[in-house]
Write a structure and sequence with these properties.
The protein has about 80 residues and is mainly alpha-helical. The protein is about 60% helix and about 0% strand. It has helices spanning about 5-20, 25-35, 45-55, 70-75. It is globular. The protein starts with a helix and ends with a helix.
């Protein structure tokens, strides 16, 4: 996997970890990035489950995501 792609994914994850809140769009973007590398990183899909659970469809894509505590725990690994 190219180093620039790894850095891009890590920066998106760090942005969510450092923020007080995250949007549904941010979480969906990270989940998509993780799924795109699943051929190289076989455990990547496991980390998307909590991201999908944190998505809150009632607030729209730019609305605040739901409970981020479990998603943040997975993103830190």
């Amino acid at each position: 996997m190219p180093a620039d792609k790894v850095q891009y994914i890590l920066s998106a994850i760090n942005e969510v970890l450092l923020a007080d809140k995250a949007t549904n769009r941010q979480l969906a973007s990270i989940a998509g990035m993780l799924m795109s590398i699943s051929a190289a990183v076989h455990m990547a899909p496991l980390y998307t489950r909590t991201l999908y659970h944190a998505l809150d469809s009632s607030t729209g894509w730019d609305g605040a995501a739901g409970n981020l505590s479990m998603a943040r725990d997975d993103l830190q690994h």
